[in-house]
Amino acid sequence: MESGKPKNRSNKVIVAVLIFSTLVIIGLAASVPFYFETTTIWYKTGLDKTFLRFGQVAGMIALCLILLQIIIAVRGAYLESWCGVANLVRLHQVNGLLICLLILVHALLILLPEGLNNLPIGRKYWPEMVGGVALVALLATTFFSYFREALKIGYQRWRFIHRPLGYLIALAVVIHVLFVSDVFASGVLRSLLVSAGGGVSLYVLVVKTLLFMKK
Description:
mainly alpha
């Protein structure tokens, strides 16, 4: 049986439940800027307010997809069995491109209302700068992933850099969100994000431990 195809009907049901649950989580995350407004949006009107809000929406969706990307990359025996390895590899590639697009849209729509000549640079803007570094790193890792063969970069060398860099990007994005927005400064949203980040980290640790024990 091909590794890219779910093995049986029950697996297809599980995959459908996983997809539905993921879409619900993404939908809830996308609604956050509408129900939990940042103080910066209070002082915006018209098109600037629309840009800022939908920039935040793009950022929230990207955040969810980045955490999902870590799970897809690590995989694990059950996820491979349910979805198929080939399907997970393709999903990882498509999701990576989607994350890049959303992060670029996020950055552009956030910066436009403030003016591109007024970039947030300086010590007090460190959360914004962490986000900027994450964006550059994300674009770089995506570029080298798709043009690795053309650039004659060996798979093992690429993988040695790609995996830890992916974890660092995810960590940087979580830190960026936790400290750049006042709605995540405390309360339920901060707790949910910290829990989500901790849950993904625990998943990675469990999968890696089980793989190590099998060797």
